[in-house]
Amino acid sequence: MEKKEETKAENLMANSTFSNQISTALGLQGIFDMPCEGDVINQKASFGFNMDMFGIQDYCNPSLFDLIQTPVVPPQPAAVSESPEVVNAPATPNSLSVSSSSTEAANDEQHTKTTAEDQEQEQDKEKAKKLLKPKKKNPKRAREPRFAFRTRSEVDHLDDGYRWRKYGQKAVKNSPFPRSYYRCTTPTCGVKKRVERSSDDRSIVVTTYEGTHTHPCPLTPRGNIAVMPESSAFSGNIGTSSFVLPQPQYQQLQQQQQQQQPYFHNPTPSLSFSTTNSSFPTFQERQFRPSLPSLLRDDGLLQDMIVPSQVLKYPKEE
DNA sequence: CGGTTTTGACCGGCGC
DNA sequence: GCGCCGGTCAAAACCG
């Protein structure tokens, strides 16, 4: 019951354009504070990361950034060793018979407690267990670059335009709120993200991204930030939005992989977040306010902070 | 019926 | 070596 309510709520909130787009796009690391509720948005958006690079430092909050930025990148990449041990082939199905016989012997010594079938089952279990081991191949595999940011939102999992599948949830020490683990559903994309609620302020969601998407945002044809995909009222404007979030890391990958994957030839828009000569107004020029139609109101209002200027103009601003 | 979420178990790293 | 903890797996449940 509650679950359904939650689902509803999440659906309602699902439109929240997510700041990870920004972060992902910029390849930033650290924790970004991204207030996205109306009460907060009215306070003047306090981007926690340095937006100087966009020429919109007016809205950056360096102190906050400094305050909350944390080294989410592991201290040491600990030499990724493709050591032979990774080859350490676990018991393969073929080896089953061998170990099976030895197991039988062992059982024989004790007592004939199990039938052959039982043993087979046990062997299957063990085999299954062992089959898990090879996955530890890269014991110290270098972690992807990570970054985290904080978002004030009622929902844990905000829609960032990408599709995620939850693959785990864990209770977090010293926090009453569990941490959820998501993985990008795109087969070749190994991006993960963790979502947890701040124990200090339950209204704050801490999202940590790991890795770089190797594909455009599925909800947008050109990898642009997705803004209210189902809001047809805006999609038109958004489609031509000057607010285009490039994805440096993604672009890097483009360069690296475009030979392998023509997919990446899809030109990623250049950084037009810069306000110097684009039609996108400076943050200073813009008035962040809950100006979107009511259907947006309950969403994380982050989209207010990053919706294109056209959208912002949409509702008469008075 | 296929995709997603839930959830208990498992594993490795790390500190003691 | 042991226990704790974070991260992941995968079967089952759930959902559209």
TrEMBL record:
Residues 75-145 are annotated as: Disordered. This is WRKY transcription factor. SUPFAM superfamilies: WRKY DNA-binding domain. It comes from the Eukaryota. The keyword NADP does not apply. One of its GO terms (molecular function) is sequence-specific DNA binding. SMART domains: WRKY.
